[in-house]
Every structure is written in structure tokens, then in C-alpha cells.
Amino acid sequence: MATPVIVDIVTYFYPVGNTSAVHLTRNLPRAQTAQILLLGCGDIRNIVFTVYMDQDSGKQIPPAVFDFLSDTAQQVSFDPQVAWFVLTLSARNILLLTLALDDTDGGRDPLMWNIYYHLYLDNESMKLLNDQATKLYEMAITMQSWTNGKYGQQFRFCDEGTLSKVRNIWYTYRIVNFKGKEREQHLQRSTAAMQRATSSREYRMSDASFPLNGIRAAAPAGICAAQDAPELARHYWEHGSTDKDGLYLRKPENINPTFVTDTSTLHYGTDPLLGFHLATAYAPLTKESPLRGRDKGRFKLVEVARQQFRAWIASFRQYPRQQLTMRFSASDAVAFSYALQQRRLAVTSSPAGFYRDSYHSKPLVLDSEDYLGSGGAPTSFTVIDTSNLIDHIGALNLLVASSPLLENTYMSSLYTQSLVKSQETQTAYIDSLLCGHFPSISTLLGLIPVQYWTNISSTSMMDDLMLDSGFGSAGGNKQMHIRLTWKQPFSRQTSHSLASGWLHFDEIGLARMLHEVYLNMFRNEDMHKLFAAMNQHTVTNNSLLRYNRRSFALFLRFVRNRVICNWTKVMDRLLAFIEQDSTLLMNLNYIQELYLCLHLYNVHSVDTFAPAFARTSTSLGAAGLKGWRNIPPVLCVTIEVPREKLGLVTRIKPTEIGSPILHCVVQSSPSSPSGRWQNIFSAIQLSFGTISTSGERFSDTFRVHIAEDKLRWNGSSPLLATFMAPTWMLLLEPKTATIAFGIQSTPASTSVFMKLLGLDLNLYRTNLGNERNVFFTKFSPNLAEFTPLRALSDGNYNNSVASNAAARILITATTDTDTGRIASLVGRLEGLSGDMKKELRNGCRVETVQTSPFRFTETLGSKPITLDFPAPVKALEHKTRIARKSFYIEVEAPLADATSWKSFPSFIYPTFLWSGTPSVWNSSYLNLDRLPVIDAAKKSELQWLRPHASGMFNTRERAQRNKSVVAGSKTDVRMAFKESLFTMFMSFTALQRQQTRLFSLNHTTAGGVHVLIFISNLRMDLTNHTVVLDAAVLLLTHEIVSRIGSFLDALSKLNICHIKVDSEELNLWKQALPALVERCRTWEHQADCEYLRESSIPLSMENGQRVVCSCGNGRFPPSFILGVPQWSTVSKYFVRAAVSPCFETPFSEQLFEFGTLHGCWACGKEKTNNGRALLSCGKCHQAKYCSADCQRADWTLHKSHCRAPGPHNNLTQHHNK
């Protein structure tokens, strides 16, 4: 809806995911109801994996849409899996999930695997598919028949259109029933579809290609899959099956119909294994471990994937049906999000003037009973997952559409994921993501990118960075995998409306800031920048565009809801900046479309949209447009492009077309009395079909109706392009002005089409007076009315103070008008209570203390007031202004940047109270008992763990580790914290140190041992592709020490690893431990929980005082800790915790550079264990290692680019200079 429309002749079908399943509720505490919206998620993996992980966790996933939706406390929700081929995906997904529910004993799991993943099916699988599709087809005759049927309460449709189209797809799965000509046509369709897929793969995946996704799916043991994963991907495409022998099935009659589409091509990278967590194939799991495989050959990856499929499906089958509801919508992700916004703001099924997507003429109308009246379908969500849509539609388009649907709680999360390498570095990626200064624009959006501000992630990026450097050239197009979690600011949590989180702005500063976004959004039109830095990324980024002027208008609609200022003044200044700008080559050619979109979305209206403006050019009795009585200020223009004009595009080889952007142009005739002018419209609607009309032409009653041609580019119908245009422009030359349909000029499109189409790249042109091919209507085709998007708020800011509030808090953003960035945030406390005014007047002491990057505490005498900023601010740089006569206090602090975390190094896993429940912000919740258990005794099979754990350290820290050892220099607290974690993992597995499972945090100069950490086992953290220590933790308070003296004496005789910490690191541990406990709890907080009583997490930072609440003390599985004396007596003081590696994000410091790594290429050490110089690879003499074990661990990765002759397993002494 908000993205440019392209020539979509070549489109891909993604029936299965290409990244491992994610735990959708990973940021929700135990026993919380989840309202989940999935945008862009094509298959079922995330759904069933989430159900598996949440089983027995107390979480409930309430009703939703295939992209979860629901507000019922004990139901699950899914909402639109939106892509071009969501219909096919919905049909596949519902079919499989209903099969799972019917298969009560799991006996059909192998057949279900075949149906969902194999390209060719055996007879038994084909018959099961046919029978289930027939059953579903017969149930789905009407919405009522489906709703009243066997599956109607659990699987629901948002609208009649989706149900009808999904039913039609189920019909195509009934191939066993096809006879005669129908069967012959099906075989032709299937054969053609498979030929397209194999040809595409042969073209895209050359013999030199080295697919990386299988290695990523096997992380943290990814290097172990470097050979197996690509070979199995090739096997899948050669056999059409994951079975060892599937060639006998490669016949046209055995092609799986769920992989067949008429207009799209099965993606060349399709691989069933990619959606699973393949590390369990390489990690040595204990005999009792969940998800333990047994196959030792290459097909062990297939075995573990099948095993996980069975386990996930079994959990889905066992989940109470009344607690899981899914709703499906076949529509564009952005369009569906705006439809939900409309529904949330007002109970209406109106289409809001937009279609399901930009490539069809079907309106999006949520007309099911769930969205009418009090139907109960959710319109706000605790979880919104957007897959990697951000790569395809742009971050601003995605966030502006979806973030207003995020529920206003600390717990709510919006997830984005990027796979496309659009920039050379991660820093460049984040700097360009929001079309402006990242900290400023994220603050303006009212969103907190958690990993950016904490500089910490639960997931290691080391595997991706190493793979990109080591294998990128072999794989063709490189990838850049970045996951971000977006939260809402603390200052927004007090409001429960869709419109909340107001920011005061000065008008000129805000206008400058918005203009910078405009310039960056359309930087492809800046020829100076294009030619100044011409490289592959520049050409690609200037050809694959994500925004048009409608995008910018929708962004401004969102911003208007977020700010308090004179909006008219902002817009006047912004439009002046835009009109006067000369850096964008086509700026003025798009200016009328910008004005138009601003008017349509109620952002701002210039004078030309006043009703009387256009009507001055009309008169009764005149012909054509000029005779339209009471002509509206905006008209819909539909141009019919004859089929023969499309041949210049359709005759080009599909591999050469690319993704050219389409637009319409209206310009003056050669003899125009108004002079030369041209206006381009990129916000167009595309469809194929035949037009019929009704009503009187050139009047409000005239309508255009489109009967669509499903074959589109492959059919015979004309192309129909529709766009909105300002009426006054059309009236300049209503008969003679030129209207054209063509391709937008970009570096890529120009190289392909200029020789064929000429410099203007037009496919078809005519004049406005051509009534056979040009139509003017009040409303868009197939729409009986136009309902504009409702404003997110009424624009009225409530300036009152709640009766129980100590003060009213106003937040102002101060902008730098030269750079268009937020320079500082000012928090103003006013409307103080009477007692506080009195204190202030009497000269009480006012103390300002910054307690976190977001929060200040203002203390007036003895009365504290909490001041929360909507974004982090720099520490120790604030100013406080006190107005004792005017009764207000202001705190001003500079907006933080990517390196500001260094001022708050303990802000790693912040934990907050929300409605009495602790909520962990930056650490995934884990159902530990569902995670595979690693046999730590099998060192030879754990060599991948050392480089993985070393991935905690960035380039600077790797160098600093060596200096610290040599010179005894002090390290920063985060590095010390990671060093302590590294010690635990290496000691528990004995990979570098003596094996032990007992650890202490020992502050030798301040009380000795403060924390005891006893490790039960090491588990695979599937969600985050890492490992986790399942531990029992005891914080030694004065009270507890007095009770367990004999136990502490007994411990002194055991092998305990005493980790030395200083005061800073001990404080960091105290801040982190509540999160490490909370993230794995299986118990409920009690009514008298200390967190509630003290309103503080952690409870105290003082030595000898309680840090973590006592609600979880002693709650352990049987036989959790063995070999510890008096455990049965003292376990009641311990609490279970999940201790994971702590990985940095790449936004502030370099993590790893493959070609210039100076330390051990496996673990980062700069010396051998005995302090000598590193050893070098005897083959290439470039790779360096601290030991033979590290070389063996790294060999799978290193061998692909180890070039010099000689045996790879020889180590020679390497002397660093």
C-alpha cells in the first residue's frame, strides 16, 4: 500500500521459512496472555514452536489471525501472513494444522511432513492431502458453514474474500478427484511450475554457490554444518524429497500441488531444514534430553528436523482447543495494519479507501462477525512479529503501520528482522534504517530499539559476521542478519489509548527534522550523492526503492499524533523547505502527489484542495470534465493500457527484468496555454482485467468496475493503472494533456529499458480526452465510497493532572536546526501538589538523580517524583532548572547515542514491574525443561562452544584481554562480566580449565564470596541459537549466612571456581540476577512478593542485603543438584536461574573482522595457554590458533578459503610482530 508498485512478472513463492523458528512470546512473562500479530510469516513453524516452548509455562496465546489476533484471555491469536501469495500459504497452513488436530495419536506425522515439505508425494501422502482438502473445501461453502463446522472456532477468517479464495485453492489440492481434461490441465500446470522452479534454481545457484542459511540454522554449532547443510539442500532439489531415496517419485503426477502456483515461482532457496534448529544434530545430548537425535550420518540434520516437527505438532495437538484461535487474512501487511487501526478507532468494516494489496482491485473489508460490533477480534497486540518485511517494504512504512497496534505495556514487543545486506556495515545499516538520525527518529516514533540502546543481544552475531566474511564471495549475494526488538517508552505506559506518548517540539526544529527524513527517503533522486559514491550497494539501493510520496504522508500522519506544536506552522515551514530544495532532481515533479497525499490522509491541505478552487474552472453545460457539477477536489484516474503495449516488457527474459517501478505521468501538451508542466504519480494501483462502467460519465454517479484476470501478466487482458489526482491539474487541459504509464528511471531500469522505450521509459501514452482508455471517477474502481483513514487522535492534549499525581510531566524535544536532530530532551514537572509548592516556596533542597538511561528521580525535600524520558539521555550531563515562584522544575539532558551505554554499563537486562508482574526487557524467557540437555563430558563434540563463547568479545576487548593478562591492567565492567561468564562455560565443560560445576563471585576486598552459582546442566537455547547454564543461585545475605554456616564450611572442601569480581562487576551481577531468575521461572509471584512491597528490582544494591525476591526459592526439578553436601537442607535458599552468554551488538564497536583478526581465529586469545606466541595454520600461514583444539574447531569454517599448498593439520610456530 505504501510502497512503490513494480513489474511483478517474476515473483517468488515462499512455502516454508528460510530462518529457524522463533519463540514468539519470548519476551512475555509466565502466565501472561499473548495477543500475537504475525505479518509476513509464511509457514507454521513459529506458531507450533511457540506452542511447544510455552507448554506448561502458564502462558496463553489468545485468539488472532494467521498473524495472531484476539482479546480473549485464554485463546491464541494470529493475524495476516501477508505476502503476495498469502492465499496459498493460508491454504497450506490450515490444511496441515487441521490434519494435526485430526491425527490424535501422531501416526500420520510422516505423511504430514511429506505433504508440507516434499516437492513430490507418494500415493499415500497424496491421498491424505486429497481427502483433507476435499473435506475443507466442502466445509467452506459459506462463512456460516465454515464457522459452524468442525474447525470454525479455532481457524477463522477475517473476511469473506479470504475464505472464498482459500477455498478455491483447496479445490486445486483435490487432484486425485480430477479426471479427463481437468487432470490434464493440472499436470500441465504442475509441470510448468516445477520447470520454472528448477530453471530459476539453476540460474541463481551456480556450482560455485555456497548457501549460508543451513549454517545459520545450525548455530551455535553452525561451522559443523558447513558441508552437510549445502549437500542436503542440493539433495532436496535433486530428489524433491528429504528422504535418502526419493528419485522414483519424480514424475509429473506426483508433484505436490501445495507447491504449485500459476503466476509465481517456487523460491530457488527453498529448503525444509532451514526452519528448524539444526544444532541438536551436532551437540552431544544426554540420553534423557528432549529432541535428541540418533542418526550419525549426513541425514542426521533431516532426522532432527523431523523430530522437532513431530514434537512441535504434538504440542499443538495437545494444546486446549478453546485456548487457541487463529484468524487469517489474505492481504498486504501494511494494508491489513491500517485496516486494524481503523477497526480499533471505530467499529466499521469500511475499506478505508484501499485495497488488499497494490496488485489487485479487491477492497480490503473486515466483514466477518469477529470485526463487527463486539465480535471480539483483537486490535492491539502484546507481540507483533514482522519476519523480514523490513527488507522489502522499508522500516518507516512498516513501523508507522504496525506500531500503533502495539499494546501499551512494558511487556509488548515488536520484532523486525533483516536478511538483505543493504549496507556495507551494520553501523551503516542502522544509520540508514529510519531515513534519518536513528536516535532522533526512533524517539519521534515513540519506539525503543532495545538492542541498540543496551548494546547487548541474546543472540550472537559472530556466526553471521564470520560467514559473511568467509563465505560471502562464494555465495554470491551476501546477507546481513540483524534482529531488533522495539518497545514502548516508559513515559507512554500511563496511557491506554492508541494515541499516546506526546512530545513537545518547536515548529522550525521539527520541520527541519522532517525535511531530513524526506531527503533521505528519496535520496535516490539526489544525483550528486549517486555519482559521488557509485558502487554496487549504491546502484542496488537506488534501484530497489521502498518509499513514495504516499509513504511520507503516512509517516507525517503518524508524527502528527506524536507531537504537540502548531502543526500548521510545522507544515508550512516543511513544505517551504521541500519546495525550495534543489538537491532532489525530480522533487517538483512529485510535489503535486505529495500535496495530494497530505490532503487525503488529513495531514495538511494546501489551497488547491479547497472545493471552490477546482470549481472555478467548471461551468454548467460544458463538455467533459469541465461540465462536472460540484466536481470534487480529488478525482480517481484509471488508465487502460492495451495488452500489446506490454510486449516490450513481457518479451524480456525473466532473469533480466529485475523489479522496475511503475508510475503514471500527467503532463502538458506541446501547445499548452499553461506552459510546460509535468506531474508524476507513483502511488498507483495495478490490476489486469476488463472494465465496465455505470452511471453518468463526468458526474458523481460514474463508477468503474473491474473484472480481474487471474493470469495477470500471463493473460490476455489489458493492464489497468489507477491513481488519485488533484482536480485542478486535470482541468488545465482536460482533453489535450498527455497521460502516460511507464517505468520510473533508476540505474537498473535505465540499463534494461532505455534502448527499448526511450529516455522517458513510457510503455503507453495517450491524452486525457481518450474516453476509451481514460476514466475519471469520484471513487476508486470497485469501491462504492471513500472512507479516509481516521486520525490516530483528535489532536487534543489533556493537560490536566490526575488526582493522585504529584505533578504533571511535559517532555520537550530540543532540535538542532542545522542537522535536523534532537539535541536534548527536557522534562518539566509542573502542576505540583499544594504540599510540594509549599516546599518549593520555602526553599527546600531539590536533588536530581539519574537512576537509568531513561529515568530521573527528583526529590523535593523528602518527596520523590519519577521523571521518565521517552528515550535514553546521556549520563552526568543533565541540567536542572528550578522555578520556585512559578512552581516548576526542568531537567534537560542530551539525547544519547550508540556509545552512551558505556555510562550505564549495568543496563543490560533491565527488569521492571508492570501491574505487579516483573517484566524482563532484553533477555528471552526460557522454558528450560523443554530445551535439549548437552552432555558436557563429551569434550571432543563440544569444540564449537569455545569460538561461540568467545563471540561475546568484540575486537577491542580481544586486544584488551591479552593486555590485561600481560600487564594486569583493569578491564571495563562489561568485559569483566563477560569474562566471568566465559569462565563458567569453559570450566563447566572443561574446554579450557579444570572441570567444575560450582562457582562463586568473590569480592576479595569487600566481604569475600557474595554469590554462589551451582550448575545443573548445559542446555541448547534454541530460540537464540546459543547455550544456557541451568543453575541454582544463592545470594549470601547476612540473614542467610547466619543460618548455613556448616554448609559453607563443607563447601570449602569442594572444587569451587572462585571468580574474582570488583564492586562494579558485583553491582552488574546484582542488576542482572533478577532477570536471570525471572526469565526461567516456573512459579508464581506471591501476594507478599518483596518486589511488590519495595517497588524495586533489584531489591537492594547493598552488600549483605536481599537482591532477588524469595518467591522462587527452593523450586527445583528432582535431582537438580547432585554431589553437594546438605543440598536438601539449603536448597530452600537457592533459586533457579538461566545464565547465558552476553553478546554485543555491532552498532557502536567493531565485533569481528575476518581478514584482520590478530588473535586465535577460534577463541580470540592472543597467546597460547602457556603464554607463547600463537601457532599458525601450516597450509595458508594466515590463520592463527592458540591450540590444536582451536584449529580443529575452526577447520570446517576455515578450509573454504585456506589456499596455500600443504597439509592443513600441521601447526607451526607463529611469531607476532
UniProtKB/TrEMBL annotation:
GO function term, MF aspect, one: DNA-binding transcription factor activity, RNA polymerase II-specific
Keywords, alphabetical: Metal-binding, Zinc, Zinc-finger
PANTHER family: DEFORMED EPIDERMAL AUTOREGULATORY FACTOR 1 HOMOLOG SUPPRESSIN, MYND-TYPE DOMAIN-CONTAINING PROTEIN
Record's protein name: MYND-type domain-containing protein
UniProt xrefs under SUPFAM superfamilies: HIT/MYND zinc finger-like
Organism of derivation: Melanomma pulvis-pyrius CBS 109.77
InterPro entries on file: DUF4470, TF_DEAF-1, Znf_MYND
Statement: the UniProt record of this protein carries the keyword Repeat: no
Keyword Oxidoreductase: no
A single cellular component GO annotation: nucleus
Pfam families, per database record: DUF4470, zf-MYND
Domain named MYND-type: residues: 1160-1202
